[in-house]
Amino acid sequence: MTALADLLGSNLVRTVLLGAALLGAISGMLGAFAVLRRQSLLGDALAHAALPGVCLGFLIAGARDLGSIMAGAFFTGALAALAMMLITRATRLKTDAALGIVLSVFFAIGVVLLTHLQAQGGAASAGLASFLFGQAAALLRSDLWIMGGVGLVALALVLGLWKEFKLVSFDADFARAQGFPVLVLEGILTVMVAMAIVVGLQLVGVVLMVALLIAPAAAARQWTRSLGAMVALSAAFGAASGMGGALISASVRGLATGPVVVLIATAVVVVSILLAPGRGVLWQARAARRARAQISDRRLLATLQGLAHAHDDAAYPVEQGMIGTALGAQPPATQLAKLERRGLIRPVTHPPETTPHWELTGKGHAAAAAPETDREAPQ
To answer: Is the C-alpha dihedral spanning 179, 183, 185, 186 positive or negative?
Structure first.
């Protein structure tokens, strides 16, 4: 607790912590719509397209001015989004191909400009490379106001156009048929994603920004089926990842904040994929195991009932070997014991034979005769 208090006592740590939380919340909120629209690569393309804008902003300002750099990044990001839309509408190329072209071309231009500026020398251009992977230590209080403003604008747009965004995200063709301006709505969503990327350049950088957009949304998607809950949970995951990464990088010397934030967000995705109720891998494996056990139990009960009907005796004692012959394999002792505990079968003796025999109870006959949907799942 003392170490944490000492960390939070630093103005720089508090600034980075708040900035990371704001950026994570904004990215998580907007990333949810990108994931639902199956445009996860869009964030990657816009993030990489911001690099030439960073260099252009530096050239225009003549110095490492954050306002000019962010304006340049937003301009080239918007230009990349426009280029992608033109490619998909003017050619037969699909969206993923257009995104791949835009991403590679704009990032290549950015690398060329960055290399040229660094070759020119000068202290001002020395820090431009930090925009590739972010530099949280350079975050200023004034930057928090920009992040907060972008966050409020994004939140206002999401709340104001909630119904429209929801319809476009789930069924754009239906929205178009209903007369909604789908192109405008998609443009607004794209611009908001570009704004989130621009404000995240300083903290995470162009290379890792896409992870902060997509990872919280991908994790939230595993836990809920409601759009509202997904957006809120994605924003919470993003904010928590940002704060966790900021605290860890501040407490361990030499750790960059951006990569740590991304690693935490990735860990949240892994945990969600494994453990989320209903959709988690382990949950589904457990459900599949229970379904197999249920099918096996039904086969055993149906076998006992079929033999009872064949002998015209509801209490016909079936020798355990007969059950194995009918099923093709001997039922495990644990399965028989489980069905006995549930009151579906009971062990009986059948003199002069000494081998185990089983018969259906009244409850067992009812379970065996019940339709598939009415049968009780195994406990």
So the answer is: positive
In terms of CATH architecture, what is 283-374?
Answer: Orthogonal Bundle (1.10)
Comparing C-alpha atoms, which of 18, 50, 27 is closest to residue 132? Answer: 50
pTM: 0.81
Tell me the residue type at 115: T
In which element (H, E) is residue 355 found? strand 353-360
Q: Nearest Cα to 206, choosing from 135, 154, 116, 263?
A: 135
- The answer on pLDDT for 127 being more than 80 is no
Spatial contact of 346 and 361, defined as CB atoms under 8 Å apart: yes
Residue 375's pLDDT band, with cuts at 50, 70 and 90, is: very low
Mean pLDDT for 310-320 is: 88
Phi/psi for 365 (5° steps) reads -60, -40
The answer to whether 128 and 55 are in contact (CB under 8 A) is yes
The DSSP line for 279-338 is TSHHHHHHHHHHHHHHHHHHHHHHHHHHHHHHTT-TTPPEEHHHHHHHHTSPPPHHHHHH
- Measured in Å, how far apart are the chain's first and last C-alpha atoms? 45
Q: Which CATH number among 1.10.3470.10, 3.40.640.10, 3.40.50.150, 1.10.3210.10 corresponds to the domain 8-207?
A: 1.10.3470.10
- Which of 84-98, 101-115, 277-291 is predicted least confidently? 84-98
Q: Where are the domains of the chain?
A: 8-207, 283-374
Which residue type occupies 208? L
pLDDT at 263: 92
Distance CA 26, CA 71 (A): 18
pLDDT of residue 264: 94
Q: What are the pLDDT digits (tens) for 140-177?
A: 787 788 888 888 999 999 999 999 999 998 888 888 99
Per-residue pLDDT for 85 more than 70?
A: yes
Rounded Cα distance between 9 and 4, Å, is 9
